[in-house]
Amino acid sequence: MSASAIALAVMIGVVGVGVAMGFYAGLRRKMDLEQWTVAGRGFGTLLVWLLMAGEGYTTFTLLGASGWAYSRGAPAFYIMGYMSLGYVASYFFLPQLWELGRAHKLQTESDFFEKRYASKRLGAFVALVGVVFLVPYVDLQLTGLGDIVRVASFGGVGKTWAMLLAAAAVAAFVYTSGIRAVAWMSILKDALLLGVVAVIGIGVPYVYFHGIGPMFAALAKAHPKQLVLPGNTANLGRSWFVSTVFLNALGAFMWPHLFAASFTAKTSDVVRRNAVFMPLYTITYPLVLFAGFAALLIVPGLHDGDLSLLTMTRRTFPAWFLGVVGGAGALTAMVPAAMLILAAATLFAKNFFRPIFTPAMSEPSVARMAKLMVGVMTGVAVLFAILGAKSIVGLLLLGYDGITQFFPGVILGLYWKRVTRAAVWSGMIAGVGAVTLLVLSGRDPIAGLNAGFVALCLNFAVVIAVSLLTRAERNGFESSPDFEAPPETPDKMGVS
Amino acid sequence: MNNARKSELLRRPTLGALLLAVVPFLALCFTVPLWNRIHPVVLGIPFNLFWLILWIPLTTLCMWLVYTRDRKAEPAEANTTKGDSR
Questions:
Q1: How far apart are the CA of B30 and the nearest CA of chain A, in angstroms?
Q2: The complex's ipTM?
């Protein structure tokens, strides 16, 4: 068997097992909206940990972090800082949101805005902004997958075919098994990824430099500026680092798919304990950075730094291991993509289409429509990925900065009685508007600060000022009729 | 039950919890000018990267302290949440 055939066979085997797990996860379950989107709120600590920490770990982390280390150097360290701090911040709002979620049957981030501020339009706006940023994120996963499969099969499978096949599989298992597919596949994906990253991150420096220490010594000699901020960049210095880490830490769980993932937990204590242990997941990040740094010394001059980890792997390890990396990498794209698509489809059907066009739509019809939207969202993302649309890159750059503009509405909605609907509207429009203007006109970073951070400050200022200028409103959660009779959670549906 | 649920919804973080949670923010974010350097190299790793790795377990330790403090402050009933076997 040729190297290419071995790698391809192993890769297909790994992905096949993963996809089978995805279908199996939803067997013999009645998939109503509550089961499909939040698994009947029955997951224990391990599955929630895999969903929330594991799904933050996408191809963007695997390829992007090593790519940043390769081409920019020390600015890549921001990823380690903000992931840990994102989990720290989540301790102070996710358990509270879980409690509200159970009492008021919240399934999405938009549901929170809709109920808290008693405004279907605000919920619809959040859904729309969410979908606009989620779809390019799916597109990014598919593009990463295309690269991984192409390199890991020695060019045997073209990028377009890989993306089409993977997208079809993702749409199919999300359709049948919903969030359960994502959770069960995460077990395989995270276990494989941890192993693969450890072998690459430690193996590569040992093969070429006889250790991690000698590698850094060589790097410090050859590229002394690479290892401290601003690295190989002109404007990603210390103030950029502080503002970016801070912004992304607050924004990490504003991504609608991660926000909603907390609703799958069995109790709020599961969510809280997760916030304590999720930082440990970031132990895998330095290993990815090691691979990027090694690549800079061994294979300098790659036109695309994001390919540095894969290039090093192919150069260093036997074909079967490349197959494992390819399979793990493909799952690292497919599993988060599934969660993104699920969130986008639910937001569109439940929080955008129904309130705006058909208020009388029944819950089962919403569920049917959301499942239908899985196909549509996947189709759009694949189309963008195949066409390689340039405009999509702009949306991606905006993604993190844009999504974080939900933060003031969430945190003040939880903790400040005085915040009003008009204020949240104004702040969000100011924040999203400012960040769009700054990023698309190439003014990021601005005055050494992350543009999203500047927009977030503006957002907060506007929300607070307008709240104080408008008349106080009742908290939508306290005046809602279903508050009087909190439904009992169906704990018996828990996965164990 | 309704009243218990209501107070749970409004549960606010204590000052002690917030102060403990600020520690990782100081270490990993706001103090970057202090540790943005290669030397001293620790275990062969540049100091800034070593510092970030060191704070992975230390962050969990801080949050563990927050968590155990919060649990102690809660009524005993809330501590025996059903189905918490994992």
A1: 6
A2: 0.84
